[in-house]
Amino acid sequence: MILVTGGAGFIGSNFVIDWVAESNEPLINLDKLTYAGNLQNLAEIQDDSRHIFVQGDIGDKKLIAELLEQHKPRAVVNFAAESHVDRSITGPDDFIQTNIVGTFNLLEAVRAYWSALADREKADFRFLHVSTDEVYGSLKPDAPAFTENHPYEPNSPYSASKAASDHLVRAYHHTYGLPVLTTNCSNNYGPYHFPEKLIPLMIVNALAGRPLPVYGDGMQIRDWLFVKDHCSAIRRVLQAGKLGETYNVGGWNEKANIDIVRTVCRLLDEQKPRADGKSYSEQITYVTDRPGHDRRYAIDASKIERELGWKPAETFETGIRKTIDWYLTHGDWVANVQSGSYREWVETNYGNRK
Prior knowledge:
With 354 residues, the protein is an alpha/beta fold. Helices cover 45% and strands 16% of the residues. The protein has helices at 10-22, 61-71, 85-90, 93-115, 119-124, 157-176, 198-208, 227-240, 257-271, 302-308, 316-329, 331-337, 340-350, and strands at residues 2-5, 27-31, 51-55, 75-78, 126-132, 180-185, 187-189, 212-215, 221-226, 246-249, 254-256, 284-287. The longest helix has 23 residues, at 93-115. The N and C termini lie far apart (51 Å). The relative contact order is 0.13.
């Protein structure tokens, strides 16, 4: 059995669903169910006995200790995090509490559990921490992509909090011997992506006839990774990763935000044309850039391919089509996540940008 934290969020729920499909090994899924955690993401496995859901916080050391003692997992995979840069700018407190203090409390509970295991179980145990390429900061246009040895230069409260959590995980390995693994991924996209992030926000707004807000000149570059590929990489690192090592996980797809938005518009033009026959691209609206917006991220994922034999199965072209197909056929999910609080957030974040 394994313990997954944050398994009702975007990446976590995709990982849990794929784990149940790929493995007979059961898992405990711990999620606080904040705005981005959604049990509807897990509807297809809600009756599967291999999936045990527990609502709770990684900062609750007593709860974590009880779950570890009761279920005796061989591994912990930590997805639990506040992850939206814009939200971290307007309200950094939650990011400090969850990403730093929460990770610390989780590590403390796991260290106590691991220390008491028998030698064989202790040797087999793994703590896999899922992180982001944003900890590395911003790249110049012609700079080499981030490798695992790139210095940390976080530029937002979100990336700073994730950098801190990465450092804690590293420290627990070097100080206490905790058998850890860390992955730093590029921008994910795919099913169950909460529509505050670029791709689902563009899809949802386009279909609703609303403006498609693009920050600044839209030339911020990101590497894009289909979420199912990310999940397969995590399974591979958990299976064969070297203790104490970091593995960058990317899709080898560097694209400017404006090109992503235009691609979404083009595919929606094909699959669900506007009633007036015009292109969705007419809804593109350039808005004031966010503070401290990193210009470029790029992941060099050659280490995980070289050492563990993993590489992404999807190109951006195949992955984005699958993503748009999913949103077009899951209107109920989209409608349900757009609650009053979501609408208030979108208005707060975009309403005053010109």
